[in-house]
Amino acid sequence: MKQTALTIPFECIPFEQLSLHQLYAIMALRQQVFMIEQTCYYLDADGMDQKAWHLMGMDQEGNIVAYARLLPPGTPFDGYTSIGRVLTAHSVRRTGAGKVLLEQAIERTSGIFGDYPIQISAQCYLLHFYRSFGFVEVGAEYLEDGIPHIHMIRE
Predict the structure, then answer these.
(1) Which residues contact 49 (CB under 8 A, 6 or more apart)?
(2) Could you give the CA distance from residue 69 to residue 83 in angstroms, rounded to a whole number?
(3) Per-residue pLDDT for 144 more than 90?
(4) 152 three-class SS
């Protein structure tokens, strides 16, 4: 049976509370999606994971199938919180899992860090998706690791 967005429980914990198994699973999934599927080669271990809270959605077997990194104000954008490394595993795509993940990420970012605007670096092909959550483009499109991106802000 295919996993649906409604059956994905989420857990959000700071870096220090991640188990070694969770950290390994997060890094493996990020590599699978960004480096293997999107052929985007960059240093994923960028020094921000230690400052972040890690939002993980799990399937029925306990595997991480949805993930986002929630960053405090000033990391990396002055005056803003941030959500990054947003991804879903292939097994849950087209189930609504991405929408549920971003809803959870926005809600938990505000709950953890307070009432700050959120700035993201969005892949341009996902503009419509992020706009549907109240994000608006700021600045010009740019290439990041060979993929067109744009900064977006949600007040």
Answers:
(1) 15, 69
(2) 6
(3) no
(4) strand
Report the pLDDT averaged over residues 100-106.
97
Terminal Cα-to-Cα distance of the chain (whole angstroms): 39
CATH number (domain holding residue 32): 3.40.630.30
pLDDT reported for residue 146: 83
Domain ranges, residue 105: 5-154
Q: Which residues contact 22 (CB under 8 A, 6 or more apart)?
A: 54, 56, 64
Confidence of residue 40 (pLDDT cuts 50, 70, 90): confident
Q: How many CB atoms lie within 10 A of CB 102?
A: 22
Structure tokens at 130: 């992020």
- In our burial notation (b when 16+ CB lie closer than 10 A, e otherwise), range 13-33 reads eeeeebeeeeeebbeebbeeb
pTM, 2 dp? 0.93
C-alpha pair distances (Å), 152 with each of 28, 31, 52, 128: 27, 24, 19, 11
Q: Grade residue 41 by pLDDT with cuts at 50, 70 and 90.
A: confident
Task: Give the pLDDT score at 2.
Answer: 53
Number of domains in the chain: 1
Q: 98 with 4: CB under 8 angstroms? A: no
